[in-house]
User: Fold these one by one.
Assistant:
Number 1:
Amino acid sequence: MRKPGSMKALEDLGRARLSRNFFLRDFLHSEIADFYRIPNIPENPDLAIEAGTRLCEELLEPLQATFGRLHIRSGYRSPDVNRFGNRNKLNCSTNDRTAADHIWDRRDAEGSIGATACVVVPWLVDHHGNVEDWQKMAWWIHDHLPYASLCFFPKLWAFNIQWHERPRRIIQSYVSPRGTLTKPGMANWEGDHSALYAGFPDLVR
């Protein structure tokens, strides 16, 4: 599939269904793109759809089935949008580091594919109010879903959740306690963490 060259073609691309509840259009909104008038359009639509489908089917669908509707904060970033965001200090990494992450249609340096979305889980916001409660969701996801990486943020406990064909299984946070919660090699990485998220619903697939 070619990169859309018209409004109609972009409209049709947005109708690409990634999973039961998600379409590509759900992930094309970008405040950077909107405000600075930079088109946020996949250069390789087929690769974006392939990676986005895995993200939605394996991670976002079970999250939404278990906790209710997700709020998608951001998803796909075109290389042009991400490059502008990085150069202007708008919380974007370099394109090389963002490939197979927010840039769904670009393979990383190892040739792997991946996709990331930033989401808010309203259920978590409504039911847990302590600053450290983001860790409950982090450990629940760690025990239940095949995520590649997670990164949590202070506002509404939004978090980046990544699918990648070579998952690192690392959880990081900008919320207190900041830093790395777990990663392979840390003592807390393996085992059952259910005591840390007592009262959370069972996984629904």
Number 2:
Amino acid sequence: MRIIDLSLPIDEKAFEVHRVEIERISHRAGVKKFNRVIMRKTVWGKLKYLLGVRLLKKEDLPDEEFLSLEIIHAPVHIGTHLDYSFHYGSQSEGRPAKTAEEIPLEWCYSDGVKIDLTYKKPSETITAQDLEAGLKKIGYTLQPFNIVLLYTAADKFFGKPEYFSEYPGVDISAIDYLLDRGIKIFGVDTMGIDRPYRFMLKEFLEKKDPKVLYPAHFYGRIREFIHIERLANLKALPSQGFKVICFPIKIKQTGAAWARVVAIL
């Protein structure tokens, strides 16, 4: 058995549109935080803390070190994650949209298939015809509950501004193609399923047509689907013959959740 990591990290040093901060409390600083947090829970404790009293001293600890602690301040759309219908809108298929902790786990472990779409340009979209041609090329017929991975190689730009501007989007026809064949989850190695902002906004400002803004995401209000964004390392996969595991972190009432997505060969 071989496990291939298909996930990107949450990295505060990578270029991102939204603020990402990881507060890193070292082993040495951990004892200071412990005293501050524990003692400030009561008025009497706060007073003693201000007077210099400490419950725990570094000399009380092995190697004078406490436990490290990292606190992440970041959107759920940073790093590899699954988007569900609440992200797309408050309603999906005429019902209240579902949040990420409601993703059926049985959908998140299934046979995977990779479709090579590296020829698509950033200004273009991946269509149903592209998917059909890609599947024909590898001699594969989609089965219900397959997890389909759309390989564009855009993950090579991760950490740079190009990651947000150099990738193709996914056309509604491609989403229909997958859903009509019983696919519940598909994934992309791009930062989103719609075309980059620069193309959508430019077209909107020229045409004043709101339909050009996030059409793939907003289509989740019409048909319910789940997609994985920010996959990586798809080049290491064969086109078929592997399992995908993409269990989302259980975060209450969010439209997306981080996941450590892997393939098993």
Number 3:
Amino acid sequence: MDQPFQGASAICIDADEAQRLINEHFPKLKSVELKYSSLARKGKNLKRLIALQKDILNNYKSVTYVCSKRYLLILMFLDYAIEPFYYARGHNFYADGQNYSLGSLLYYVGTPLLGSGFNNILNAFQVSMRLKTVDSIQELIKKVNSVKWNKLPEAFVPMASECPDCIASILNEGTSTDATMVVLQSLISRLEVISDGPYCIEHDKSENLKQYNSIIEQYINHQENIEFHTTEITSIKFPLRLTSVAQVESKTHLGVQLADILIGSAIHVSKLFASKKLSDYVEEVISLYKDNQIIHMLPDLNFDEQRRFRSGSQANQMIDYFDKNFY
């Protein structure tokens, strides 16, 4: 994966305030659009970028979501190629974050245990989720059986034994490995907490995002009173405070440009931190964030803390509810 991280940011800010921030921190900006990737190429901009991020994070409500794409892919492998096996046997695979713990374990020991065969399994899983064909499923099963999967049977017995429930889950046209909805759901759940009242979401024009607007509109229109807790600090409650979602042109929407600064910086810093390329800039950006301003979807081998953090998780009930009510 060329870019190992994915994410998004949201900021509660109006156009006038966004314009003031940009004028204050980049008064000589010649580009028609404020873009982190362009500004960060020049070392002279780093101090201004730090100051802008500090201003946003100290004075405006915001949330930034960053995830490891490999870890998220592993979690999706657990969702579709493993969980149905346990569900059919009456076991709540998501209880107390068991799926996150197993996903973290696979992230770190998958390759040491199985060599390149682990990557081959993940690649075959992605292909089977995209193609939705019997041949692609058989190729996935072949890849699983080509490794010593009994070294971690909890993760590989379902596909090695050709579990029909897992096969049906992968073939289901409603499942995919697209991380976009995971990111959007996480942002919305946090925005619901930090918003003072009704709010709207405006995001940049993107075909990938556009296809999810109809799902978000279903969330908005859902009027049943219900709430699900997934971690000690995360929940989602209906009806939402969110009232609308719309696409905008990022070149003219300054709030979207500021969100690009936050997520661009967060992904850049995450990549440098993961590769142990620390610097004053990396450490300073990390220090800007309060715990409630950032969501990490990263592997964690502290299983006791994972269990504590996700104790009593209603993820299983939430997934079933979403499957029945949203399409």
Number 4:
Amino acid sequence: MSSAFRIGISPDFYEEAKGHFEQTVEEQLGGLAGIEAGPMPAQPGKLATPDALDQFDAVFPLALQITPESLKGVERLTVVARWGVGYDRIDVDALTANEIVLCITPNAVRRPVAEAIFTFVFALAKNLFLQDRTARAGGWRGDLPNIGMDISGTVLGSVGCGNIAQEMFRMARAFQFKRLIAADPYIRPEQVAELGVEMVDLDTVFRESDFVAVNTLLNKETEGLVGEHHFRLMKPSAYFINTARGPIVQHDALLRALRERWIAGAGIDVYPTEPPPENEPLLTLDNVMVTPHALAWTQGIMRHNGIEACRNVLAVARGEIPGGVVNREVLERAGFQKKLARYRGSATAAR
């Protein structure tokens, strides 16, 4: 086993994020004593293999899937550090059982994702794509079948009220929404009172909002959370926005709501399968705006995700507890503490 602290970067970084992460990795990790960072071996089907994982102390997964089978016999790996906050492709319980900590980067994603949501809000409210198509076809404003709506005086609702949703609501105060409402069983009203957010039940969010944004993580509790019942509650003039994860929404119900015009339209950045198949029906509808799970991918989010993720792994390399820990129960486990102890006091990550 190499004495260096080895960081593996999942192969899909070099395909899907090529040119956007390398500089940050070099700035944060290059030249540090005892640190080696580079690509992991090829992982067919984006499924991590034990042989690959056991070569590293830390890994940066993009869309790499880590299952219990991926971790069989893995002894070296200590930290999995996401560049982002979603971890639905990672079996957290399996990591904990193998004394491995999972870290995310909540500070880096908060503002860019909130901005992405408002990109959809304004584009949908102002019929941006319809206006663009009309003008390109030589039409003028009298040719528009309908006109836009004002943001002021409308209701903004959120499924979930965590880090990103709270940033969205913080931004929303400048736009004079009539009400800000959210449903989240883990948030107490007093936690968001200063933002002017009312905590309500999920049905109320869908029934009373003019814009419903999904801002919850994908897990066993939230998979398929939004279904036909919720879309039928929405106003015919309301819009649905999902920049979180596709499987949170029952896809057939979303398609029906759009096809049958139960709602005015939708802004969708995420899908049940990514990338979506060529015959994905959603891509044929004229009342939905679609983006390739990249609306929040900006130079800023890539850089700050990278900085936060690198700092998380460097903390482990120094034998310290990292930030952004998801499975906090692992921190007190003897096996994880033993792993940290082997790094502590070494020259690794010297500044």
